Amino acid sequence: MRPEAAQLLRRHGVQVTAQRLAVLAAVAERPHATAEDVAEAVRARIGAISRQAVYDALGLLSEKGLLRRIQPPGSPARYEDRVGDNHHHLICRICGRTVDVDCAVGAAPCLTPATSAGYVVDEAEVVYWGRCPDCAAPSTPPAGE
Predict the structure, then answer these.
(1) Is the preceding peptide bond at 109 cis, omega within 30 degrees of 0?
(2) Contact predicate 130/92, CB 8 Å
(3) Domain boundaries defined on the chain
(4) What is the pLDDT of residues 80-112, one digit of tens each?
(5) pTM for this one?
(6) 80 — phi, psi (to 5°)?
């Protein structure tokens, strides 16, 4: 667990609890984890915790800007602790592996819409889809075939 996690929670006005610390640690150890992945990791770390408590912690920590929630089409929500920048993601269509990709061009919001319709744009969400190196590698038939 990151030693500064408790101070980070306090700086953002969040009460420090073992559950919240465990959720932060689980997301830090496994970026792009689903809530179920986080719940499993938290249970391994601190024992029993309800699914609702994990969802509540993820929601609060995302709301406070300590975690980022992404939800690619066709996928459950995923969480990461890389916040404060406007990075994007590469997602494998076959295995679902997700990796970070730095901003396409320059600083946030990285992309400028053709028209903003009066909105003040502060973030662009880009998802690149393809096949990861493992899934794109040609399969090698077993010896003797």
Answers:
(1) yes
(2) yes
(3) 5-70, 85-137
(4) 999 988 788 999 988 889 999 887 665 556 667
(5) 0.80
(6) -145, 160
Distance CA(103)–CA(125), nearest Å, equals 10
Query: Which residue has 């916040």 as its token pair?
Result: 83
Question: Would strands 33-34 and 78-80 be described as parallel, antiparallel, or unpaired?
Answer: antiparallel
Indicate the DSSP class of residue 135: H
Whole-angstrom distance, CA of residue 68 vs CA of residue 80: 5
Q: What stretches of the chain adopt beta strand conformation (E)? A: 33-34, 68-70, 78-80, 88-92, 98-101, 127-130
Q: What is the DSSP letter of 61?
A: H
d(CA 45, CA 22): 7
List, edge to edge, every strand of the sheet that includes 68-70. 33-34, 78-80, 68-70
Instruction: Kindly report, residue by residue over 16-34, the tens digit of the pLDDT.
Output: 999 999 999 999 999 999 9
Residue pointed to by tokens 């994990």: 54
Q: Which CATH architecture has domain 5-70?
A: Orthogonal Bundle (1.10)
DSSP-derived letter for residue 66 is S
- CATH code matching the domain that covers 85-137, chosen among 3.40.190.10, 3.40.50.1820, 3.40.50.720, 3.30.1490.190: 3.30.1490.190
